[in-house]
Specification:
The chain has a domain of about 120 residues. It starts with about 55 loop residues before the first helix and ends in a 5-residue tail after the last helix. The protein is an all-alpha fold. The protein contains 6 helices and no strands. The longest helix has about 35 residues. It is about 55% helix and about 0% strand.
């Protein structure tokens, strides 16, 4: 292959040949290959470590689960209150002596615990948009405690609370949850 004048600045450098399989100067590009320019760029994504601008789906799911737990706590509070009133009334009736053996103080205490747990869930869920890393840690503790407390009365509500507690802990504890709660607020 000859490139003409050895002093031509646009020709191949002296002593080097164009790579095999590559067209030399003046040859036409083979058809079927991309044209001039750069290939299509991939879609723009957030760079690693960048603060998210919208709440990630897993964090939003954790917030929704907190609202669902609030609903269950309201139902539980009502059931404990109704049970305590029923036990108080059963103490006067001889037909319900077995039911009257239960302590109304324990039922009222469980009602207060269910109410406090529901309020805690509502406060956490309401602050997910503006809360910082402290809220993330509190939601993580809430999820873990919910899962642990759900193990004892292994009822239908216990199973649901167990699953929801584990999911809340996982969703706020993962990297997306960490990035959401540690994002800068201007």
């Amino acid at each position: 292959m000859s490139f003409g004048d050895p002093n031509n600045p646009y020709g191949a450098p002296q002593g080097q040949q164009p790579p095999q399989g590559q067209p030399g100067y003046g040859y036409q590009q083979p058809q079927g290959h991309p044209g001039y320019g750069y290939p299509q760029a991939p879609p723009v994504q957030q760079p690693y470590g960048a603060a998210p601008t919208t709440m990630p789906g897993t964090v939003n799911t954790a917030r929704v689960l907190l609202w669902v737990i609030l609903g269950f706590q309201v139902i539980g509070t009502a059931l404990f209150a109704i049970s305590a009133v029923a036990v108080d009334k059963a103490k006067d009736d001889a037909a319900f002596e077995e039911l009257a053996d239960y302590s109304t103080g324990v039922l009222w205490g469980l009602m207060v615990l269910a109410l406090v747990w529901g309020v805690w869930a509502a406060v956490l869920a309401a602050k997910f948009n503006s809360g910082g890393n402290g809220l993330r840690v509190t939601a993580l503790v809430f999820g873990i405690l919910t899962a642990i407390l759900a193990l004892y009365p292994f009822t239908v509500f216990g199973i649901v609370h167990l699953v929801f507690g584990i999911l809340i802990a996982v969703f706020v504890g993962n990297s997306k949850g960490s990035a959401w709660f540690k994002r800068p607020r201007y």
